Amino acid sequence: MRTGRGVVILAAVALLGVGCGDDDSGGSEDAAATSTTAGSVTGPQNYTVVVDGSSTLGAENLVWGTYFPNRLAVRPGDTILFDNRSSNDIHTVTFGVKSDRSDQPPPELANGQINPAAFAPCYTTGPARKDLTCPPPTAGAPEYTGKGYWNSGVIMPTALPAEAGPKQATVKLAPEIPAGSYTVVCTLHPFMEGSLQVVAADGDRLSPSQVTAAADKELGEAKTDAAGIAIPAPAAVPNGAEVISGWGDKLVAVNRFHPETVAVKVGQTVKWRGISPYMPHTVSFQPPFKSPAEPDALLPVGVKSGGRFGGGVSHSGIFGPPPGYPVDTFSLTFTKAGQYPYLCLLHPGMAGTVRVE
Questions:
Q1: Closest CA to 123 of 105, 106, 148, 104
Q2: Residues 75, 208: one domain?
Q3: pLDDT for position 139
Q4: Position 238 pLDDT exceeds 80
Q5: pLDDT over 90 (residue 86)
Q6: Would residue 25 be called left, alpha or beta, if left means φ above 0 and alpha means ψ between -120 and 50 degrees?
Q7: What is the pLDDT of residue 29?
Q8: Which of 121, 260, 306, 350 has the most C-beta neighbours closer than 10 Å?
Q9: Please, which pLDDT band fits residue 6 given cuts at 50, 70 and 90?
């Protein structure tokens, strides 16, 4: 088991709040940056928080489910740019949700469609609720006052073109926001969490360059830790084979199929099993969707799990770890020799092939 989570605890005065969703998120007694003396960083500041991190698309496909730096001290009137650096996953920047997610709108509705309250920009003055209905869209994001539900909507990975949607979200803190600790979460990933500590108008905070240095250090340590994640061994399957559909821990997700090419004989079964603590996937042969945001893209289409497959469309729909998802496996019995490429509709670069002999 890996030790350390790549999350550095900065100077106690400057950086406070909760960690990445689990108590063993770790930290170092050596601060990545120290707070400045009160008043030495004057006037409204523009900070950048790195969301996730880059990895080699199609080869590593790593996701770091946190914000860098994970804890940040700011003053009223400051602006924070949340920059999604992931090569292969979407995220949100969301305030007003409890750490236990008991009040968070779920990503998926009961009818299998994506929930606009989780995926789309949504700003309310009232508290977050599981059954939250968003008001009509506004032109631009309002300042965050410390009250209500403030959700950026999804920010896209770097692998997608500009027309797919924004890759950044900007949060302007209202001048009247009360001092205190504010939790920021991703509505799509249940352990992804950080915090802003709003200090007084003359309180201690870091300079933007110090924050950038702290983010770089935390992300560097997270990448070092990720190198220690072992590739899991597929389990034996009677009359067939198993493919692992993503793995990792509560911080890191590896969005890959293993093995990427699996060989079976005609009449044998391939079972896909997800073992990531938080990341869902799809197994999609010739899916009729270009994006998971399309209507019905999260639902099964074509040959269903447990069916016999000889080509054409078989789209598992979304599956993942319980209790967030009803199933974490998918299987097909192959009836015809050939090469069958497939992909995960949710994560660019996540693909595999079934070779049937």
A1: 148
A2: yes
A3: 87
A4: yes
A5: yes
A6: alpha
A7: 32
A8: 350
A9: very low
Sign of CA dihedral 62, 65, 68, 69: negative
Tell me, yes or no, whether 65 and 151 share the same domain.
Answer: yes
Say if residues 16 and 73 touch (Cβ distance below 8 Å). Answer: yes
Model pLDDT for residues 155-173, shown as the tens digit of each residue = 999 999 999 999 999 999 9
Tell me the mean pLDDT in the region 301-327. Answer: 95
* 95-106 mean pLDDT: 96
The answer on 345 and 254 residing in a single domain is: yes
Place of tokens 């603590």: 277
Domain contains 315 = yes
193 and 325 part of one domain: no
Query: Is residue 145 within 8 Å of 123, Cβ to Cβ?
Result: no
Domain membership of residue 351 as a residue range: 240-356
**Which residue is listed with tokens 């001290």?**
73
Neighbours of 13 (CB within 10 A): 16
* Eight-class DSSP state of 303: S
Statement to judge: residues 54 and 112 lie in one domain: yes
| Domains in the chain, number | 2
Residue indicated by tokens 């893209």? 297
Q: Is the peptide bond before 69 cis (omega within 30 degrees of 0)?
A: yes
Say what the pLDDT of residue 35 is.
52
Q: CB-hemisphere CA count at 13 Å for 204?
A: 13
Q: Examine residue 37 and state whether it is found in any structural domain, yes or no.
A: no
- Amino acid in position 303: V
How far apart (Å, rounded) are the C-alpha atoms in residues 329 and 319?
7
CA-CA distance, 163 to 161, in Å (whole number)?
5
